[in-house]
């Protein structure tokens, strides 16, 4: 239960880019640490931080889960919390709502505005290549923030299935993205808010 999440901590990693990381078990092999583009295989449990039971777990599928980090496939906080992890290491990652499912929730088990806690134990790390800098590709005027117009242009260029449905569908997709990504609600998605692949502060592709 999440009410038991304060027990068993033997090392403190501290705050890491907006998430709090507790090391529950040190890794067996820290010569190889997880970087963006790597494929991780891990056991995990996800909890709502307000004391409720877990809402998802790799045990639900009865096998470890595999996922890439740095490609925007997971919530921001989980990706940030797994950078630098070692094989055999077990982390407890405390994720604020703004780095999880934000003000809209996931539509199923995570309500709007929910903070999350993940227990993750890494079994294997397969080294990969760093993902392309999608942020730089979308940010056409290179001002280190993405406007709704720039996002729409990127979707128009790359999302052929979406564009076949017309401009209104593109606008709907942009609305959904900005609801998730524009954390400070200033009408732009900056480098820190962007959850997709990016490198450095503003490297080119």
Secondary structure layout:
Elements: E1 11-16, E2 19-25, E3 29-33, E4 39-48, E5 54-57, E6 65-68, H1 76-82, E7 86-87, E8 90-95, E9 116-126, H2 134-138, E10 145-146, H3 148-158, H4 160-163, H5 167-181, E11 189-190
Q: Would you write up a description of this structure?
A:
It is built from five helices and eleven strands. It has helices spanning 76-82, 134-138, 148-158, 160-163, 167-181; strands spanning 11-16, 19-25, 29-33, 39-48, 54-57, 65-68, 86-87, 90-95, 116-126, 145-146, 189-190. Helix 3 (148-158) crosses helix 5 (167-181). It has 205 residues and is α+β, with helices and mostly antiparallel strands. Helices cover 20% and strands 29% of the residues. The protein is globular. The longest helix is centred in the C-terminal third of the chain and has 15 residues, at 167-181.
């Amino acid at each position: 239960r999440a009410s038991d999440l304060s027990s068993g901590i033997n090392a403190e990693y501290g705050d890491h880019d907006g998430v709090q990381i507790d090391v529950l078990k040190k890794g067996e092999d820290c010569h190889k640490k997880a970087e963006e583009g790597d494929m991780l295989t891990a056991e995990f449990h996800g909890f709502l931080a307000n004391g409720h039971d877990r809402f998802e777990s790799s045990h639900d599928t009865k096998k470890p889960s595999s996922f890439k980090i740095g490609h925007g496939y997971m919530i921001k906080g989980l990706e940030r919390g797994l950078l630098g992890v070692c094989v055999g290491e077990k982390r407890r990652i405390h994720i604020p709502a703004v780095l999880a499912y934000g003000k809209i929730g996931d539509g199923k088990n995570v309500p709007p505005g929910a903070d999350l806690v993940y227990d993750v134990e890494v079994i294997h790390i397969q080294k990969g290549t760093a993902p392309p800098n999608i942020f730089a590709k979308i940010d056409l005027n290179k001002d280190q923030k993405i406007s709704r117009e720039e996002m729409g242009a990127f979707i128009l260029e790359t999302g052929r299935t979406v564009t076949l449905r017309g401009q209104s569908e593109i606008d709907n997709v942009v609305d959904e993205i900005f609801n998730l990504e524009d954390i400070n609600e200033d009408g732009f998605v900056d480098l820190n808010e962007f959850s997709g692949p990016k490198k450095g502060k503003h490297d080119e592709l």
